[in-house]
Amino acid sequence: MAKRLAYVNGAMVPESEAKVSIFDRGFTLGDGVFDTARTFNGRPFKLREHLERLYDSLRYVQIDPGLSPEEMERISLEVLEANRPLLGPNEDYWITQQVSRGLALKGPATVVIRCEPIPFAEFAKFYKTGYRLIVVSTRREPPQCLDPKAKTISRLNLVLAELEAKMVDPEARSLMLDLEGNVTEGQGYNLFMLKDRVLVTPGSRSVLKGISRATIFELAADIGIEVVESDFQLFDVLNADEVFLSQTSRCLQPVSVVNNTRIGKTVPGPITNQLLRLWSDKVGVDIVE
Ligand SMILES: Cc1ncc(COP(=O)(O)O)c(C=O)c1O
Q1: 139: which DSSP letter?
Q2: What residues pair up with 43 in beta bridges, in sequence order?
Q3: 158 in contact with ligand 1, CB cutoff 6 A
Q4: Strands 242-247 and 5-8: what pairing?
Q5: Which residue from 149, 189, 249, 252 has its CB within 8 A of the most atoms of ligand 1, so it is best to mutate?
Q6: Strand pairing class (189-195; 198-201)
Q7: Is the whole-model pTM more than 0.85?
Q8: CA angle 191, 130, 91 (to 5 degrees)
Q9: How far from each other are the two terminal CA atoms of the chain, in whole angstroms?
Q10: Which of 248, 249, 250, 287 to mutate to test the pocket of ligand 1 (most atoms within 8 A of CB)?
Q11: Where are the beta strands (DSSP E) in 64-188?
């Protein structure tokens, strides 16, 4: 049976035989960055935007991947092409570029590019039911310590938050505040709330600039909904008309409950639904189905 291939430091190898040193700083120190795009019907979506974000993260942490953005794009597409025949019907891939500093402070960097089928079955039902979010005690690390705009390999700040939420409710996701008590994001997603037909999302000071978040800005403009980047608090989320999250694998998914409070009149709300339909039309895939 054909095996999925991955790119590891200049070579295409079967995924199961791919190796990185146990002394790699990505493993020993979480010293690296990554990015993940996805496909729709096997075609990459906004790969270039994801790679721009990857190179912004690389510049911030001072890692030279030894590849130009154009080379990184070309190899990412080669990995996708090599693995495309293994995509089943209604399947799509995550495409991930992972870059660590390598074995020493001065590199050379370790570069891995791989594909992975998106596990749609794990989250499909939340398009209908919405997520339950729990505001956790772990705060999103502030930009004075490590800028959340960088997509770093170490996700421990986010993982600890997620463990806290799942301790209370195994299906819930964590929602993190910043040190001042403003709403930020959770592991893997950005948050939006709708109030009086205006969408509000935290500014990029305290969150990753999600590529899906940027897509929501575009889709909202198409339907005449204003998007505002602003600080807001839990109080505002609890009183919102609709709340949803945005994330590469899921595009956008509704939120039904925050802590113990039901959000909005219906889940998904009408604007959440409209944005999902519009996104589906844009990529030619019924996202919810
Ligand atoms: C902390 C965090 N916020 C937001 C997102 C959503 O970003 P994107 O829409 O690019 O997937 C992610 C994605 O992994 C993330 O890790």
Answers
A1: P
A2: 40
A3: yes
A4: unpaired
A5: 189
A6: antiparallel
A7: yes
A8: 90
A9: 29
A10: 248
A11: 93-100, 110-117, 131-135, 173-175, 185-186
